[in-house]
Task: inverse folding
């Protein structure tokens, strides 16, 4: 039970406590007001403030004489130390450097000592150009993966280290002479000028990519050795993918990662290729890896290589597939224009009169795609059995690369841009693809301990990023048809002129012929044409089955009248035809697409060129193999 007194006090506090607090507060406030009112006022006047400021300004502006300053320094006991005398005294007493010698010699760290290595950032090839081709490749015949030896009594057995066919070609080149006898007639001059214009166009067709820079040509050194193996001509389809690699940026990335300039070079292993197939519904398949083993069955069994236009330093072996020597067909879009020297791309204009033409030098002929006689075989052959290609030393002494000893015996240089070229011989006819590439290098940090945390030092290879996909590239059917123009109707039937190209997979020879066909007709038939050769024996007439197994459903186009109310003239409508293919599907052939088709035009030009040159032994598989007005009849 609560105390009664406490309860009374509590009730009193609750009732009158607030009043008491207010009273105390009011008393304190009155006290502060009284104290403030009784304080004395400030007696400083504006005149006093003005006088003080004026005195301060006069003190600051007043100048002191040098004597007053010296007297003040003397009073403060600050005297002249006489530095001149001190310096004179020190010069008479020379300092002995031996007295300051360190007790132990300085330690010079090894280059890169204490620097932690990282994984280099790899980059992808750029400026990729994919282009289809077909032809007859000179290749060693193999059985169960092994080359077939050539019997010693075979007429093509090697003599003096070279197969007989190659010796004959060499003899033909040596006897060609340095110049031309006599002058040219007007007709010959016209023909030479025509060839000159054609050659300029062919130079453009063989180059890929944009021509942005120039590179100096270097002397090629090729070891040539004989190989007594049987050679055959095999028809092959291919897609060539060319591009460039920013070697300067890649080396800078290596320097950033490896810290030492003398080892900041990538050791290339190979180029990986993947492709997609355009499906019937217009979508792309999944990316699939190109079968490298099947491609190397061709690339590792080449008796001859074709001439390269880009110089050796920009063509490292593991980035550039070699060009097989073609007995039928020509190479196109396989040299990067920006890396080919200017003199290789220039076509010498034919001159009237005798003497030597531009591009001809004493002792032989020089021009785009041609070399002095002494080096001509090397440029054509590239590699014989047991020999080496240009740049083959790349990586041969480097082992697996990337060891702790920083083995730099692989080929490396200071070029800014390198060429990249891959050949895919596994493509199928009448199929459209797109490709992408990536570089593969040996791991420079393999089995090393001086690496940053997380760096992979166990992987033998490092893979770069994939490039952007190439544009769509279509491999033509072995028998391809192209609509060229609407022709005169036969009765009431409209007809279209078709260009039929037929390729023989057995020997790689391509022939072409034009046929007219209307609704209900089969495009192509048995017809005699000239078959080109590459051994100099001349073309031969032979019946070829151009039957495309395609039936024309309908045809339209040709000259159409303009409405009379507009004009009385006629205008040409591009030929359009629907055809049934062998698999039962219906396809459209359109003059607007087929006539300017680059692949079609190159096939036709190739056939004409091969027929015209069948009386000469083939020495180059490039479109630009012969100078206008030089050599031949």
Result:
């Amino acid at each position: 039970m609560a105390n009664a007194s406490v309860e009374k006090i509590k009730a009193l506090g609750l009732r009158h406590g607030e009043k008491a607090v207010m009273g105390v507060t009011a008393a304190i406030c009155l006290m502060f007001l009284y104290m403030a009112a009784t304080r004395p006022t400030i007696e400083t006047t504006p005149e006093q403030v003005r006088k003080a400021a004026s005195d301060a300004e006069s003190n600051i502006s007043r100048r002191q004489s040098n004597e007053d300053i010296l007297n003040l320094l003397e009073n403060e006991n600050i005297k002249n130390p006489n530095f001149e005398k001190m310096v004179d005294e020190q010069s008479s007493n020379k300092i002995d450097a031996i007295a300051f010698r360190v007790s132990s010699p300085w330690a010079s760290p090894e280059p890169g000592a204490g620097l932690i290595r990282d994984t280099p950032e790899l980059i992808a090839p750029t400026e990729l150009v994919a282009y289809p081709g077909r032809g007859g490749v000179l290749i060693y015949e193999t059985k169960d993966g092994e080359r077939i030896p050539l019997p010693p009594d075979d007429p093509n057995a090697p003599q003096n280290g070279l197969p007989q066919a190659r010796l004959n070609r060499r003899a033909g080149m040596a006897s060609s002479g340095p110049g031309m006898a006599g002058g040219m007639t007007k007709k010959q001059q016209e023909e030479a000028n025509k060839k000159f214009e054609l050659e300029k166009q062919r130079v453009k067709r063989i180059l890929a990519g944009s021509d942005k820079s120039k590179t100096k040509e270097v002397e090629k050194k090729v070891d040539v050795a004989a190989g007594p193996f049987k050679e055959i001509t095999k028809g092959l389809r291919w897609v060539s993918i060319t591009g460039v690699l920013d070697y300067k940026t890649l080396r800078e990335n290596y320097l950033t990662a490896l810290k030492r300039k003398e080892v900041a070079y990538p050791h290339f292993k190979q180029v990986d290729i993947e492709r997609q197939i355009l499906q019937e519904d217009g979508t792309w398949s999944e990316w699939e890896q190109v079968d490298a083993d099947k491609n190397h069955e061709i690339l590792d069994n080449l008796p001859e290589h074709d001439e390269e236009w880009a110089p050796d330093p920009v063509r490292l072996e593991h980035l550039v597939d070699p060009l097989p020597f073609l007995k039928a067909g020509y190479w196109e879009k396989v040299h990067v224009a920006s890396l080919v020297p200017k003199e290789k791309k220039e076509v010498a204009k034919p001159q009237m009169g005798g003497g030597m033409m531009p591009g001809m030098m004493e002792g032989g002929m020089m021009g785009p795609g041609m070399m002095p006689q002494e080096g001509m075989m090397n440029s054509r052959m590239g590699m014989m059995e047991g020999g080496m290609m240009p740049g083959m030393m790349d990586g041969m002494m480097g082992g697996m690369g990337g060891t702790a000893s920083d083995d730099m015996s692989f080929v490396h240089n200071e070029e800014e841009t390198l060429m990249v070229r891959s050949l895919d011989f596994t493509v199928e006819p009448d199929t459209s693809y797109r490709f992408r590439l990536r570089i593969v290098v040996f791991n420079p940090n393999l089995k090393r301990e001086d690496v940053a945390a997380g760096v992979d030092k166990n992987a033998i290879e490092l893979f770069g990023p994939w490039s952007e996909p190439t544009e769509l590239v279509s491999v033509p059917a072995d028998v391809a048809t192209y609509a060229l123009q609407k022709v005169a109707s036969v009765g009431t039937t409209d007809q279209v002129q078709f260009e039929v190209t037929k390729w023989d997979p057995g020997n790689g020879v391509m022939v072409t012929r034009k046929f007219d066909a209307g609704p209900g007709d089969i495009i192509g038939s048995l017809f005699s044409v000239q078959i080109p050769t590459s051994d100099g024996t001349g073309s031969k007439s032979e019946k070829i089955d151009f039957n495309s197994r395609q039936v024309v459903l309908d045809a339209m186009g040709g000259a159409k009248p303009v409405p009379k109310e507009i004009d009385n003239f006629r205008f040409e409508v591009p030929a359009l035809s629907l055809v049934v293919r062998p698999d039962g599907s219906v396809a459209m052939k359109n003059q607007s697409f087929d006539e300017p088709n680059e692949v079609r035009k190159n096939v036709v030009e190739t056939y004409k060129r091969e027929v015209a040159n069948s009386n000469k032994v083939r020495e180059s598989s490039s479109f630009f193999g012969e100078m206008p007005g030089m050599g031949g009849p």
